[in-house]
Specification:
single chain; 556 residues; mainly alpha; 2 domains; 21 helices; 83% helix; globular
Length: 556
């Protein structure tokens, strides 16, 4: 029998728990990244992200496909009451995770200087060393998360993510501030900021272990005979290896892209290492904001695989297709307005969050990256849908095509003196849109129930366009009003000749204009989504108490 209750198995019930966790994590992350941008210079921020790119690649190699494969196999076995099979799958997966985590830890701990030199950023060695423990602890943590997600239990994942974020906030900021103020060392400050990640992974792993022990006590005795270890490992490998390779392509591309970027800035544009780090730091700050919309796709990708897999396992193909299409439509409703918002308010947002950086350059890059962020969200969700249908090789093929295009475009554009660092965002747009379009085409051609692109895209695009225009208009009107007031204050400011009052008014005016533009945009978008019936009663039926919500909103 399954250990999960019907309520736990609700698709958007599990996604909702993860979404709440993601929102909390991102709020904590904002409290971390915004002051961190003030503590670290652009060069220190570049060191931070260089180490993170290496960490991300090793994490994906160690855990990229195994959690997905584990979640899928657990959900399939759980759907037909094979509890002993679930236990055997988890035990073998955990052993594989620990071996991979140990190898990855040793690579980062023993060769930090060599890895930093390989990235053309020798100052990133301390940060690489500080992240080494994290790459070990994330492996058992990922195994436990995959196990719980396979049971449609999302709370342990959400809470462990919050623990990670809190450790990063408290420990990371404290150490970054200490090393910056006491030692005046940017490289050590970046390492201190990132050390909180390692502590958070260790505590998160301890928490999910405690949850796992408690969960085992609630399970009944099962009588099924599990498959032999060789068969289970072969199935895990068959599912995990293509997913890992596909994910590794993106992580490896990010590493190569970072190296190409620093290399071209130094070689083709004749910048010093410090100047190249400063320029890359502006780009990295824009990347931090661009990655936010994709974070909110994690609940959907984590929920769609076990639920579609379980539906297919019991031959409910129509239900699996409905969940897949609803997931894509939800992605459109969330990703498109987020991308439009970044595109319209790129420079104001950079000015609000990172006033000490080059906001004009950073704002331009964030606006372009906003276009790419929509494609990234669709790529992530499409990959999960294809993986749930066991078409694990196709996402890898589309990803290789897109990433090869990114490296080629980036190399050609960044080395052009007239384009320079701006080639980075342009290559990102080219990369992820080609991947997303190819993935959507494959899903459209292969889903048992024909996917309607009109249902997925037309209404969200129309509503997001109107939202973007309203945000642009509100920000423009308010910024002009505050500009006039600033000029008046600057002309009459006699007691403060340094212009501090005018500067404070400028920053306050920008902040108020941004918040007002976002507030109006949210109201306009939500009203249009309801007015155009972009959400159906069928979609809401997958949500706990969805029928009641549909009646309140009068959704047909």
């Amino acid at each position: 029998m399954s250990a999960s209750t019907p309520k736990k198995n609700s698709f958007f019930g599990g996604a909702g728990i993860l979404t709440a966790g993601v929102i909390i994590v991102k709020l904590i992350g904002a409290l971390y990244k915004i002051p961190l941008g003030g503590i670290l210079s652009d060069a220190g921020f570049a060191d931070f992200n260089t180490a993170y790119n290496i960490y991300s690649l090793l994490i994906i190699i160690s855990t990229g496909g195994l959690p997905v494969a584990l979640s899928k196999m657990v959900s399939e076995s759980n759907a037909v009451g094979r509890g002993n099979q679930v236990k055997r799958v988890f035990q073998l997966s955990m052993a594989a995770f620990c071996v991979l985590g140990t190898v990855s830890f040793l690579i980062m701990a023993v060769f930090p200087n060599q890895l930093a030199e390989l990235m053309r950023d020798s100052q990133a060695a301390y940060s690489i060393l500080a992240l080494a423990p994290a790459v070990f602890f994330i492996c058992p943590l990922s195994a436990y998360r995959g196990y719980f997600q396979g049971h449609a239990l999302m709370t342990p994942t959400a809470v462990s993510q919050i623990i990670e974020a809190l450790c990063k906030l408290v420990i990371g900021l404290a150490l970054a501030s200490f090393f910056k103020t006491q030692l005046q060392d940017e490289a050590l400050a970046a390492a201190g900021a990132i050390l909180g990640v390692s502590v958070g992974c260790a505590l998160g792993a301890l928490y999910v272990y405690i949850c796992y022990r408690g969960h085992l006590r609630t399970l009944p005795d099962f009588r099924d005979e599990p498959e032999d270890s060789r068969t289970i490992l072969a199935t895990l490998a068959r599912l995990a290896i293509p997913i890992t390779l596909s994910s590794s392509v993106i992580a490896l591309t990010n590493i190569l892209d970072s190296r190409i970027l620093l290399g071209q800035l130094q070689d083709a544009l004749n910048l010093t290492l410090d100047a190249a780090r400063e320029t890359k730091g502006v780009y990295d700050k824009a990347l931090t904001l661009y990655n936010l919309p994709a974070s909110f796709m994690v609940p959907l990708t984590a929920s769609v695989i076990p639920h579609v897999s379980a539906a297919l396992q019991v031959k409910r193909r129509r239900q699996a297709a409905q969940i897949s299409e609803t997931t894509l439509r939800t992605t459109a409703l969330l990703a498109i307005p987020a991308g439009v918002g970044l595109f319209v308010l790129g420079e104001p947002i950079m000015r609000l969050l990172y006033p000490a950086t080059d906001v004009e350059l950073g704002g331009w890059m964030l606006s372009v990256l906003g276009v790419a962020s929509v494609a990234v969200c669709f790529m992530l969700v499409c990959n999960s849908v294809l993986q749930a249908y066991r078409m694990v090789a196709l996402p890898m093929a589309t990803t290789v095509v897109g990433c090869a295009l990114k490296l080629l475009v980036g190399y050609l554009l960044i080395g052009n003196p007239d384009i320079g660092i701006k080639g980075g965002p342009i290559s990102t747009v080219a990369c992820f849109w080609i991947i997303a379009l190819l993935d959507l085409f494959i899903i459209w051609r292969t889903l048992p129930r024909s996917l309607s692109m009109a249902r997925v895209f037309v209404k969200p695009v129309g509503a997001a366009a109107a939202m973007g225009l309203s945000a642009w208009a509100v920000y423009g009107l308010m910024s002009k009003a505050f500009l006039a007031l600033k000029i008046l204050v600057a002309e009459t400011e006699e007691l403060l000749p340094d212009g501090s009052a005018a500067l404070a008014l400028s920053r306050t005016g920008n902040a108020l204009a941004v918040f007002a533009a976002i507030g109006v945009a949210v109201i306009v978008y939500f009203a249009l989504i309801l007015a155009t019936r972009a959400i159906s009663r069928e979609d809401l039926s997958l949500i706990p108490k969805g029928d009641k919500i549909a009646r309140i909103l009068r959704v047909e």
